[in-house]
Amino acid sequence: MIVWERRPAPSRALAWATPVLAVALTVLAGGVLFALLGKDPVLAIRTIFWEPLFGPFAGYLRGQIAIKAAPLILIAVGLSFGFRAGVWNIGAEGQYIVGALCGAAAGLALWPAETRWIFPLMVLAGTLGGLVWAMIPALLRVRFGTNEILVSLMLVYVASNLLAWAALGPLRNPEGLGFPGSRNLRQWASSANLELVPGTGLHWGGVAALGAVAAGWVLLARHPFGFAVRLMGQAPRAAAFAGVAPSRVVVLCMALSGGLAGAAGLFEVTGPAGQVSIDFAAGYGFTAIIVAFLGRLHPGGILLAGLLMALTYVGGEMAQQRLNLPAAAISLFQGMLLFFLLATDLLATHRPRWRRAAPSASPLPAAAPEEAR
Question: What angle do CA 225, 265, 141 make, to 5 degrees?
């Protein structure tokens, strides 16, 4: 029979090859899914992966890919540090929402002033908002030993209710005829986060995402904080002997991920979304978890994984419009990517071995001869 035997050391080559294998398996399983829905699987896969890049509207759609990728990359880079250290911030979606609310509130408090300092103030407020929201599970873990997975996840629902309250209450547009939602920040020159190069989709959020990738790379490779993060995740006891303070690493990792998630929310509410609305949350905080693991928790890999996931967003929307595919099928297709990634990760740490089955136990001994009794 085949058994899975743990490798003496994880295979680095397979660790980087499994994301490619996971994408290939996702495409195959997605094709089966689309066929079961009565759609041409080849056409569906082509629409998702090929049309946005090389189709007749590729110029516009490539810009949309950049717009979708920016928040995913920004959030995933922050999450990757915590995941490397064994700090599981699952509530980036809540930090993304709170960052957008804090940044929008800071800007709308100064409406209708016209000054170039309002947008930087909003970026600062959004970053601090996400950071403070992430400090709740961080400090609860450090002080009381709570599970940051549960606390950060539950805070997402709290943030969602804050979003609805703000869109219907204090941030609602007084000139909006009673409809929920704030003023359009994209149309206010002081807060507008427009494309820096027309047609590319690159706005300040994209610049921040590229900066986060570069800074994350340097931190991991050259900074003592990156060394502490890697050591704490790989060998906690060795980290303790090396003088690494676990509580400090937990707080810094949560602060970094929360701050970047809050900044992503601010860049989104001042750019592509344009306003605080009840349906502002787009699930970027949860999708960024897939991006982080698909990119092997490395900034360079996250950059590529974010672009790939953004491609499935844009291509998925095209498939819904052209092929009448349900939105749930596209979400399932994206979720398959994480499933297959986790499944194929087993290859990096284990290897299959053929082992003969052990001989079955002998039957019960025969009854003793009559004369021996």
Answer: 45
Cross-strand pairs, 3: 353
SS (H, E, C) the chain: CEEEEECCCCCHHHHHHHHHHHHHHHHHHHHHHHHHCCCCHHHHHHHHHCHHHHCCCHHHHHHHHHHHHHHHHHHHHHHHHHHHHCCCCCCHHHHHHHHHHHHHHHHHCCCCCCCCCHHHHHHHHHHHHHHHHHHHHHHHHHHHCCCHHHHHHHHHHHHHHHHHHHHHCCCCCCCCCCCCCCCCHHHCCCCCCCCCCCCCCCCHHHHHHHHHHHHHHHHHHHCHHHHHHHHHHHCHHHHHHCCCCHHHHHHHHHHHHHHHHHHHHHHHHCCCCCCCCCCCCCCHHHHHHHHHHHCCCCHHHHHHHHHHHHHHHHHHHHHHHHHCCCHHHHHHHHHHHHHHHHHHCHHHHEEEEECCCCCCCCCCCCCCCHHHC
Q: Output the pTM of the full model.
A: 0.90
Q: Which residue is it, tokens 């996971």? A: 22
The string of pLDDT tens digits covering residues 170-210 is 999 988 887 889 999 999 999 999 999 888 888 999 999 99
Closest CA to 239 of 250, 230, 251, 248: 230
Query: For residue 370, what pLDDT is reported?
Result: 54
The residues, any chain, with a CB within 8 Å of residue 233's CB and separated by 6 or more, are 83, 84, 85, 86
Amino acid occupying residue 188 = W
- As a whole number of angstroms, the distance between CA 189 and CA 136 comes to 34
Q: Which tokens go with 364?
A: 């019960």
Residues pairing with 6 in the sheet: 350
